Amino acid sequence: MLQLCNKFYQDADMQEIYYKIEYGKFRYSLKSFHCSEDEQKLDKLLGLLSYISQLYQMGIIRKKELEMLRYEFQTVYEYEDIKAYFNTLDKWFQSRMITHMKFQSFREVGKMLTV
Q1: In terms of domain of life, where is this protein from (predicted)?
Q2: I need a labelling partner for 93 at 20 to 30 A (CA). Which of 34, 52, 100, 102 fits?
Q3: Domain range spanning residue 66?
């Protein structure tokens, strides 16, 4: 878990997009977000959080270890513009008849951590 935390804290792209979210400066816009640098950075961040979530769901990481990033999970999971991005992704996947949701593990663990 320490290695995964270090990956998060040492990656400039993930830190940049995370701080935009944390300080309320990230805005999701259907017109300008897709194919932008922010999309790439956000997908990288959500990908790492999803990977950590999958490890938790598999029992490789315990909830106590997950607590190391609880604040970060909650910050991202509860952010309204992230929810709007997820809604767009869900519609995109549904239109292609793909049954799983993108970043599904993160959404499940994020919900669990914020209850």
Answers
A1: Bacteria
A2: 52
A3: 2-19+30-114
